[in-house]
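Table S2 (text version). Query chain:
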Amino acid sequence: MSLNVVNLVGRVGTEPDVKYFESGKIKCNLTLAVDRRTRNSDQPDWFNLELWGKTAEVAANYVRKGSLIGVQGSLKIETWSDNKASNRSKPVIKVDRLDLLGSKQDTDPNAVNGYNDSE
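Corresponding structure-token output:
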């Protein structure tokens, strides 16, 4: 049996990067800072997030830099060749569920909490 599930809670590091495709699909990329406690200081780990469909639309409309969010998804490794023909890769979290957390949810009655792309 295999299992690839990632759960993260952190602050968004960039404004949503939203792309609309001719097919009607929507993609949103974000970065997420998650604090990692160490003995000397709290150092954030940065994660690249990829959201699709209605979850991407919710992120585009309600998520801003600094927003506290929770995500659930799976880890994938993107690979490509750069202009020097070197193989490159980066980890990306493909988000299936987005939770809007923090004070914005309390003040915005239109905020969506717990949005799952499969719904």
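Notes on Table S2: The radius of gyration is 15 Å. The domain at 6-91 is CATH 2.40.50.140 (OB fold (Dihydrolipoamide Acetyltransferase, E2P)).
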